[in-house]
Amino acid sequence: MQWFHGVVKNGSVPQMSELVQKSLPVRLYSASTTAVHVLIASIDHWSKNLFAIVVSIAEMERRVAIIGAGMSGLVACKYLLQFGFKPVVFEADDGVGGLWRHTMESTKLQSTKLLYQFIDFPWPSSAKEDNPSHNQVLDYFNSYAQHFSLIPHIRFNSKVVDIDYVGGESNEEMKSWELSGWQVHKAEFVVLCIGKYSGFPNIPKFPPGQGPEVFDGKVMHSMDYSNLDNVSAAELIKGKRITVIGSMKSGLDLAAECANANGVKYPCTIIQRTAHWFFPDFNIWGVIAGYLYFNRFAELLVHKPGESFILSLWATLLTPLSWGIGKLVETALKWKLPRQKYGMVPNHNILQDLSTCLFAVFPDNFFDKLKEGSILIKKSQSFSFCKEGIIIDGEVKPLKSDIVFFATGYQGDEKIKRIFKSPLFQNYIIGRTTSTVPLYRYSHRWTNNSPSNSQLIGYAEGASNTFSSEMKSLWLAHFLDGNIEMPNIRQMVKEVKLWEDNLKQYGGKFYWKRCILHCGIWYHDQLCKDMKHNPKRKKGFFAELFEPYGHADYMGLTRK
Ligand SMILES: Cc1cc2nc3c(=O)[nH]c(=O)nc-3n(C[C@H](O)[C@H](O)[C@H](O)COP(=O)(O)OP(=O)(O)OC[C@H]3O[C@@H](n4cnc5c(N)ncnc54)[C@H](O)[C@@H]3O)c2cc1C
User: Which pick of 12, 306, 393, 471 has the fewest CB atoms within 10 Å?
Assistant: First the structure.
């Protein structure tokens, strides 16, 4: 924010030393007379009318720009309105719901609807299934937006193309930025709710002559497939020899759709690098997992960032028990499905997948499709393209394909980085290249000398992402309202490091997923304490220790 004095005005990027010298001790929403502006240049997606967004802290109007009207943007908007702010939500698409507007036909909620709901907005009785379809999820978010009158605060078809921090400019100067159709929008705080699973697909890199350019068939990312309407998607895959690179949720879902369309005549091949602990049916395991993993007793068995000596001792002493429970669950999962036969037994323990949110539910009848041969799985650490298809480790003959789908995930960090205009801030927001985006309380990004004016919601995941985004939104509303005492920057950095080390301890090489599932209650305890609410939400000692924690436990955390 205050770092970026003059960046828009003169077009040059100041050096860090210059920025620090110029930075001013502005506290958001304090009675500062310093004009600090946030500029978000934004483009109307459809009409190509350019406009931009600027905010003046001096104006003291409690205006907040939220980018994205997916689940996270909606819940952030709801709480900010409730706390008396004036949020404006900029949404690139023409409706709410984010990624649920662009899913494969077969996609349904993996979490049970009981887990995946907002604190004060239950699912309607018309949603009978435990795992509603993507259309039902979309309806649920639309009803939420209607119920809390969020729609008037959303500007649809408005893609924010960049954000910049500026300061001290006069109104005249700001008006001059509204050139060539650019508009300037004012906001005092920016909330990024732009999602992790869209926008920047992760595409593997290949040496020259070994990439998609030499292949005669079609190459697509699963994101592009999900963006197709159902009829076009069905036409695309019908009667084709398909190879799917990647065996995470989108890879398995895509393969299942191909198998449904083409049967054994044109089997779909999945190239798997690492197997993960997928569940056969989350409805059954959801209940058990709640008691095994989502209660305070389960969290006693793992180390938690910033824990006391006593808690650390407990976690160390109880590590064998945690290991034993993990083995029990792994055995049950192996017993329930013939994973061994199809090479789908992971080399790592289940706690690693749970603490990185790298687990999911198999598509319906997935193992039947493996058995009948409409889906094949091949293990390979690397592959390259040739004219007829792809060549995998240890095989001479190409795997002949008409379409190769990359189900290889997304570059969430890149998406966050690219939304900032200044290269300086682009690098700053990401942090060290070996690390995750450094976020205090998993959502707040500070500047060099003060709490900043940006927050990321929907970036770190938990057992249920509605709950995870809702808690962060509540915290944000309290923070902006001045109810949260922020530590100094040194303490924030220390805290972020503690969480990152913990993720590395349990998540291993997958720590970058930023999942807080294995110590989610501990994390929410910190948020509750910040908001000056009692973190112990259950009635009675045994309930507190053994009952699973969920959204219902956090009712009443609002101030109003
Ligand atoms: C297939 C699939 C299934 C899932 N199932 C579950 C589940 O069962 N349980 C669970 O807890 N989680 C699940 N998730 C995780 C999911 O990410 C969250 O549940 C949640 O829907 C994400 O919401 P979001 O608002 O954070 O992001 P998104 O839904 O991605 O929304 C981001 C919004 O920001 C907008 N946007 C982005 N950039 C800009 C810009 N520059 N300007 C303007 N607008 C912009 C986008 O258009 C979009 O509307 C699933 C994810 C996927 C991909």
Answer: 12
